[in-house]
Amino acid sequence: MLNFSHQLNQQQKQSQKLAMTQALQQSIQILQYSTDDLLAYLENKTLENPLMEMDVTTGIYDEPYAVRGASYQGDDEQNVFANIPDNSVSLFEYLIEQIHLNYRDTYLRQLIIFLVEFIDVNGYLSIDLEDAAEKTGSEYIQMLDALTLLQQLDPPGVGARDLQEALMLQIERDESAPEMAYIVLEEHFESFANKKWKPIASQYKISLADIQEIYDYVQTLTPNPGAGFGESFEHQIYPDIIVKEEDGMLSVLSTKRGQPNIVFQKKYFDQMNQSDDKEVKKYLKEKQAEFEWLQKSVLQRGETILRVGEEIVKRQHAFFTDPNRPLKPLKLKELAEIIGVHESTISRAVNGKYLQTDFGVFELRHFFTTAVGGSESEEETSASNVQQLVQRIVDQEDKRKPLSDQKILELLKEQGVEISRRTVAKYRDILGIPSSTNRKRYES
Questions:
Q1: Cβ contacts of 70 within 8 Å, gap of 6 or more
Q2: Cα(198)–Cα(212) distance, rounded to whole angstroms?
Q3: Which long-range contacts (CB under 8 A, 24 or more apart) does 433-439 make?
C-alpha cells in the first residue's frame, strides 16, 4: 500500500476582476482625447462606417483661441508681424533662398551654403570655422568671409556663434539701438549681463541710467534668431466648455466641438437592410452597434467634462469673479469623490481640455493646485495664490531698491503665509522673476 504524505484538496475561490474589454479601452481613450484628436478620430470612423456621419456645425463659442509666439500691445496701425517670414518654410530653406537671390554663383557662395548646413534650429552656427575650413579645403580667411556674408542675411542674428554675437549682430542692424549698446556688449558682455555697471559707466563716462537704457533695449532682442521657423506660428485651441457671467451668475456650457454630434444614416441603413444577403445584414448590425457605442461614448465624454467644469467653477468661484483670480487648493482626488468617479477619470477629463472665459482660455488642469501652510485663522492658500502674492509684491517694489527674498518672506508672513525662503526663491524662478540684484534699475 502506498502512503501519500499530502492530501489533494479541491477548493473553489471566487474573485472579482474588471475585464478591460476593447470597448472599455476605447471609451477611456475617447475621454482622454483632446478636442482636435477626438474630431480626427471620429472623422476616421465615419470613413470606416457608412452608417455614421459627424455634424461639424459650429456654434458661437467654437471660434479658435490663437496662442501666438508674440503678442501685440498698443494702438498703432503698424503690423508687428509684417516682417515675420512664412513659418511653413524651414530656416534652411529661407536662408538658401536668400543666398541664391543675393550672391553670385562663386566659390564663396558654395562656402556660405556649406555653413548653412550647420545652422541649428535657433539660428546659431554649430561648427568651428577651422573645422569648416578643413572639411572644405578652404582657407580660414575665406570661411570667415563666408560667415560674414551669411550673418548679413535675415533673420538678424543668424549665423552667430554665441549669445553675445547674436545680440551684437541684431544691434548692428538696428538704427534705433542706443549709441553705446554695441561697444558695451562687445567689450563688457559678462559684466553687463551681471549688472556690474559702475566700472563700465566710469570707463565710458556715461551714467548708470544710460546703461539701464541699453539693458532695457537688449531685453527686446531675441536670444534665438532662428526660433519659429519650420513650425506653425499660431497654435489654435478649441475650448471644450465656456464660462459666462451674467448679473453675477456663472453658467457653464459645452461647445459643439467639445461635444460633437454623430448622426445615424437611417435612410442608407433602411435601403441596405432590404437585402436578403446575410453577410450584408450582419455587416449592418455590426456597424449600427459601433455607431451606438460611439454615440454613447462621445456623449458620456462631453457630460463628464461638463460635470468636471461645473464642479471646478463651484469650487473656484472667486477665480471667475475676482479680478485677482485667486485659486483655492483643489486635488483631482477631491473632485473625483464629489462627482463619484475614479481619480484617473478626472485626470483624463482635464488633460488637454480647455475652458474659455471672457478674460482668457485655461486648461482645466490649471484649476488644480496644492496647498501651502498658512495661519490657523485663515483658509489654506494654494501655491498658485502665493505665487500671485510674490508677483504682486515684486510689481509694487521700488525698483531702485528691490526686495530680497528674505524681505519678501517677511511681507508674506504679515499676510498670514508661512513658507521658507527657499520656496520664495523657487516661486521667483517659476514666475521668471530675477534676483534682487538683477531687478535693480538705475533711473535718470
A1: 80, 81
A2: 11
A3: 433/390, 433/391, 433/394, 436/402, 436/403, 436/404, 436/405, 437/195, 437/402, 438/194, 438/195, 439/394, 439/397, 439/399, 439/402
Q: What is residue 57's predicted lDDT score, i.e. its pLDDT?
A: 54
Note the pLDDT tens digit of each residue in 141-179: 999 999 999 999 999 999 999 999 999 999 999 989 999
| Cα–Cα separations (whole angstroms), residue 153 to 30, 83, 231, 285 | 47, 13, 20, 64
Report in angstroms the alpha-carbon separations of 31 from 3, 301, 410, 440: 61, 5, 45, 49
Closest Cα to residue 331, out of 362, 297, 356, 368? 368
Residue (of 111, 225, 92) closest to 162 by Cα position: 225
Dump strand ranges (E) for 178-302: 234-237, 241-246, 249-254, 261-264
Half-sphere exposure at residue 424, Cβ-oriented, CA atoms within 13 angstroms: 22
Which of 114, 104, 98, 111 minimizes the C-alpha distance to 143?
111
Say whether pTM exceeds 0.70: no
DSSP 8-state secondary structure symbol assigned to residue 127: S
Neighbour tally for 90: CB within 10 Å: 14
The residue behind cell 462606417 is 49
57 and 256 in contact (C-beta within 8 Å)? Answer: yes
CA distance 316 to 289: 40
Confidence class of residue 184 from pLDDT cuts 50, 70 and 90?
very high
User: What is the C-alpha separation between 378 and 386, in angstroms, rounded?
Assistant: 14
CATH of span 371-439: 1.10.10.60
CB-CB neighbours of 378 under 10 Å: 10
What is the grid cell recorded at 173?
Answer: 542692424
One-letter identity of residue 215: Y
In this structure, the strands spanning 261-264 and 354-357 are unpaired
Are residues 355 and 309 in contact, defined by beta-carbon separation less than 8 angstroms? Answer: yes
Ranges in the chain annotated CATH 1.10.10.60: 371-439
Handedness of CA 284, 51, 237, 355 (dihedral sign): negative
Peptide bond into 155 cis (omega under 30): yes
